[in-house]
Design brief:
single chain; 206 residues; mainly alpha; Cyclin A, domain 1; 2 domains; two-stranded antiparallel sheet; 6 helices; 4% strand
């Protein structure tokens, strides 16, 4: 998988895609491995649980699509919109039309998440409950889920709940703070607590 996906995708990224902020290859690979580490954690032996041979066999059956997902959201997510279009075409080519792990015909590879239970790629909007407005909130309190917010909260939750650090850069006004606050305050278990600290352009070192 490293030879088939990682090396080929890194080479394609460097030759054909532009990054708004340049990244070193080793950092992208480290990000890939962090995501894979999150997927592997349920299969670690602990004092309370021993992983069975059947569970290991189950992991082996889904490890390739999980690796593909990790490639998308490490190597494939640092480029711009034009680069993503090129990257997703190359990744589909590498996966192959006859592969059992191929993507659905419609949309981009960025539009799908791999469902481990169903063992298939599902569109992001199918991974959350239908949106409804409860009560009578103010207009500024209504947060409508989008492709971007759903998939960004998914990857952040995956990393946070597995003890990985996160840096979430991006243009002003794209919903980073709102979606992170919603994740931390409403979508994590009680063992997680957050302490928000606000910074602005006026914030100094002292």
């Amino acid at each position: 998988m490293f030879d088939k996906y990682m090396d080929a995708c890194l080479k394609f990224l460097r030759l054909n895609c532009k990054e708004p902020v340049q990244t070193p290859d080793n950092n992208l690979v480290a990000s890939l491995m962090r995501i894979m580490d999150c997927f592997f954690k349920p299969f670690w032996d602990t004092d309370a649980k021993k992983v069975s041979a059947e569970e290991v066999e189950e992991l082996e059956s889904i490890i390739e699509p999980l690796f593909i997902y990790a490639v998308i959201w490490s190597i494939g997510c640092t480029t711009n919109i034009e680069g993503r279009d090129k990257f997703q075409g190359k990744l589909k080519e590498i996966v192959g039309k006859d592969s059992e792990h191929k993507f659905p015909s419609g949309g981009s590879v960025y539009d799908y998440c791999y469902n481990k239970e169903q063992k298939e790629w599902v569109i992001w909007t199918d991974t959350v409950s239908p949106f409804t407005i409860i009560g009578q909130p103010g207009f500024n309190e209504i947060i409508v889920p989008t492709f971007d917010s759903i998939r960004m909260k998914y990857i952040k939750k995956l990393l946070v709940t597995n003890g990985k650090h996160i840096l979430s850069p991006g243009p002003t006004g794209t919903g980073k703070t709102v979606n992170i606050a919603e994740l931390l305050n409403q979508e994590l278990s009680e063992e997680f607590q957050c302490i928000p600290i606000s910074f602005s352009a006026q914030t100094g070192a002292n």
